[in-house]
Write a structure and sequence with these properties.
mainly alpha, 79% helix, 0% strand
């Protein structure tokens, strides 16, 4: 089953966006992520920023990529919800620590932070609405 079909099959709150909205939003966000996170990687590679500044960006990418597996392949709402919280936490951490080095990276990722905040609340709600226990 395609992820959009799966998403439509879940019980969701009335304020949940339609499945067709997620693709365009993520295309825009992944463009921002590619440029800004790539720049952080460049800064780290050239020893402009320490590893502790680059670390939350790397962790954020890992957690972001794991979400689809947890939610749609394994259909594990609890792991997906925990993962979304980790995506939010690592992103907030990343934007905080990069601010002194590259403010534009932090500011350009505010739409990503806004979306992840919304998506985390949505995921926690969907998880609660689809509990099987």
């Amino acid at each position: 089953m395609k992820t959009s079909e799966q998403y439509r099959s879940y019980r969701k709150p009335s304020w949940a966006p339609p499945a067709r909205l997620f693709g365009p939003v993520w295309i825009l966000l992944y463009a921002i992520i590619a440029v800004s996170f790539g720049y952080v990687g460049y800064l780290w590679f050239h020893a402009v920023v320490p590893t502790l500044v680059a670390l939350p960006f790397a962790l954020n990418l890992i957690f972001n990529l794991l979400f689809t597996t947890f939610q749609f392949k394994w259909r594990n709402f609890i792991l997906a919800a925990l993962d979304m919280v980790l995506v939010w936490l690592t992103l907030a951490w990343a934007l905080w620590v990069i601010l002194p080095f590259a403010p534009w990276v932090a500011y350009s990722n505010l739409p990503y932070l806004a979306w992840v905040t919304f998506a985390t609340v949505l995921q926690l709600t969907v998880t609660a609405m689809n509990r099987t226990c």
